[in-house]
Write a structure and sequence with these properties.
Layout: E1 8-10, E2 13-15, H1 21-26, E3 37-41, H2 47-59, H3 77-82, E4 88-91, H4 101-104, E5 108-113, H5 116-129, H6 139-147, H7 156-169, E6 174-178, H8 179-184, H9 186-197, H10 203-212, H11 215-221, H12 252-264
Parallel strand pairs: 3-4, 3-5, 5-6
Antiparallel strand pairs: 1-2
Helix pairs in contact: 2-9, 9-10
Bound molecules: 3'-phosphate-adenosine-5'-phosphate sulfate.
Length: 277
């Protein structure tokens, strides 16, 4: 029902059809710089918001480069190479596909996490709204696709489990941020991020960043790179910006199914993702 999602498949991984497979392959040889900050997120976790926050912490909120989101999957290497240091780069790539040079150079990596129930709803609205996916299924048809990882960037559960293992191993320079924490206590969450990034920050600076990156502000002022592809003229990126919208969508059965999936990946008891379970 609603047709299959239009995706690019490469070695068992699903991507957006807008991604070039040779570009994804070449990314393995991407040259990182030791002062790069890499923001890693499963789609719909708040990538745009955290990209803005991190860039403001690093460059000062009054001194932003004109375009902030620099997505590894979408920008050719020559453009990324021209960005002055320190660069804030984004990716949705799962752990096994992250260019190795980020690890070799011990770059700072910020992993963004959000409640998978809200991610699922946000993803459904995003995919339904963009013609490129060629998808017109209902929520009940999309839900099993999300649950089983038959969506671009595959399974949220696998993505999250992989990163939790990496963090536990202590091998790389990784900090996790939660969408929900930035919604409930921006000051505290942002100060911890600034500490990880080793940038000076004051409560006043954090207040200014909070104001500048409010959902309303970003929806009004930021360029929405895929607005022209929207089926209904509404922003595919800046939709609601809330915690808990999933409660308007999930049936009791879907709540059970997602709980079971969390359990089967061992995520339900993990204290590090306490705010997502
Ligand atoms: S994408 O397409 O994967 O890069 O999307 P991503 O940016 O990761 O996630 C989009 C969701 O983040 C919400 N959003 C925000 N929330 C709070 N504050 C700000 N400033 C903000 N900007 C974007 C956006 O509304 C999407 O969530 P939903 O639930 O769909 O509203």
């Amino acid at each position: 029902r609603g047709g299959c999602l239009n995706m690019l498949e490469d070695a068992g991984y699903y991507f957006s059809p807008n991604v070039q497979s040779d570009h994804i392959l070449n990314l393995q040889n991407f040259k990182a710089r030791s002062d790069d900050v890499l923001l890693v997120s499963y789609p719909k976790s708040g990538t745009h918001w955290f990209s803005e926050i991190t860039t403001m912490l690093i460059h000062g909120y009054w001194n932003l480069p004109p375009e902030t989101m620099k997505h590894l999957e979408y920008f050719p290497a020559n453009i990324l190479n021209e960005i002055p240091s320190p660069r804030v780069l984004n990716t949705h790539l799962p752990y096994p596909r992250i260019p190795l040079d980020f690890f070799r150079k011990r770059c700072k990596i910020v992993v963004i996490m959000r409640n998978p129930r809200d991610v699922a709803v946000s993803y459904y609205k995003f995919i339904s709204n963009l013609s490129v996916w060629n998808y017109s299924g209902h929520w009940d048809s999309f839900f099993p696709l999300f649950l089983n990882g038959n969506v671009p960037y595959n399974s949220w559960f696998e993505h999250t489990e992989n990163w939790l293992k990496v963090i536990k191993s202590g091998k790389h320079n990784v900090h996790v941020v939660f969408y929900e924490d930035f919604q409930s206590d921006f000051q505290d969450a942002c100060r911890k991020l600034a500490d990880f990034l080793e940038v000076p920050c004051s409560p006043e600076l954090i207040d200014a960043i909070h104001r500048e990156t409010s959902f309303a502000n970003m929806k009004q002022n930021k360029e929405d790179f895929c607005l022209h592809l929207s089926k209904n003229g509404q922003s595919p990126i800046y939709r609601k910006g809330e915690v808990g919208d999933w409660q308007n969508w999930f049936t009791p059965e879907q709540i059970d199914l997602i709980d079971q999936e969390m359990e089967s990946w061992g995520l339900h008891t993990d204290p590090r993702i306490r705010c997502l379970v």
